[in-house]
Amino acid sequence: MRHFCAVILLTFISVVVYGQKDTLTLSNNDVLVGTIEKMDRSILTFSTSYDDSDFKIKWREVKTIKSQRQFIISVTDGQRHTSDINSVAGKEKIVEVTMDDGRKEYILADIVFIEPIGKSFFSRLTVDIDFGINITKANNFRQLTSNVRATYLAYKWRGNGIYKTVLSRQDGTADINRMDAEIGAEYYLPHDWFVQGKAIYLSNDEQLLQLRSTYQAGAGYYFIRNNTMFFSANGGLAYSTENFTNDTPNRNSTEGYVALGFTKYAIGDLSVGTTAALYPSFSQSGRYRVDFNFDMKYDLPLDFYIRLGLSYNYDSQPVKDAADSDYVFTTSFGWEWN
Fold first, then answer.
1. N or C: at which end does the chain have fewer Cβ atoms within 10 angstroms?
2. Which of 12-21, 53-62, 138-147 has the weakest average pLDDT?
3. Binning pLDDT at 50, 70 and 90, where does residue 90 land?
4. Residue 159 and residue 24: Cα distance in Å, rounded?
5. pLDDT tens digits, residue range 192-209?
6. Could you tell me which of 53, 51, 55, 50 has the C-alpha nearest to residue 39?
């Protein structure tokens, strides 16, 4: 009977240990046992059996990590590995991953992204939804801003979509309407190179744009790509079609483009991002356009956040009666899913 109880006890312990696959030690020496869901943009998502909510842990707070599961692991040298990940004994903040020719050590700060093999479609998807409302008694002013962003992160590519609107109503003044939308994808190549395709849509009253559709394709390079910062440049060819709210005929333009992108996160709960793109026209002599976007996001508890954004658009050859530029500054409150 004694032996039987011992066998049952050992079996129970083995099941518990096997079920709890991943172990973290944090900088305050707390130990978490559970499941690594992903690590992206310097935030590790970790689930446990004793809490219904996932833990959101700053990557710099992780001291050791142990897991025998297989992950997609991206590092700052531009390489991607399929491997388990385990801290090296006696070396703090040093982990070892499997390569084709053996094992290699990395410091934790060099790990950019971690995702378990076999995750579902929805687990790879992140969606931000936020709204802003401004109401004043003077002139019966009403303004609504909305912002929806989605990102899908796969093994070798990232897709993203953005849809932003500004609707403004005021007595004695024409209504103001603006829409920005974007859908695109990046495919990652070795050594921090990537190819890119994107469709960009813009509608605003200031430039009399009923709709401008821009389709672009090109390549780029990440000068900096780590778990706290991205800085990239890309360029290629673009084609734009424009419809206007007045009687101006439709315009088409074949263009080149050069763009810069910068994202800085893990500034406490703050992250900032900016993009700037120049579009010189090949088919319309002397014409060029500039698109600039700035975004700042402050994370709140329970996946809520506050966002501030600025969008600016310039056209060196606007149509008759239209302004050469338009900008919008928005503040909003939102929630992030996944």
1. N
2. 12-21
3. confident
4. 30
5. 899 999 999 999 999 999
6. 55
3-class state of residue 178 by DSSP: strand
Cα–Cα dist 257/278, whole Å: 6
User: Contact, 312 vs 202, CB < 8 A?
Assistant: no
Cβ atoms of 75 and 32 within 8 Å: the answer is: no
pTM of the shown model: 0.81
And the tokens for 59?
A: 């990557």
Q: Cα separation of 295 and 275, whole Å?
A: 9
Amino acid symbol at 244: F
Helices (H), 178-280: none
User: Looking at 88-92, 276-280, 311-315, which range is the least confident one?
Assistant: 88-92
Q: Of how many residues is the chain composed?
A: 338
Q: Would you say 309 and 293 are in contact if contact means Cβ atoms under 8 Å apart?
A: yes
Q: Output the DSSP codes for 274-289.
A: EEEEEEEBSSSTT-EE
Tell me how far the alpha carbon of residue 2 is from its chain's centroid: 57
| Res 200: pLDDT | 97
| 89 half-sphere exposure, CB direction, 13 A CA radius | 0
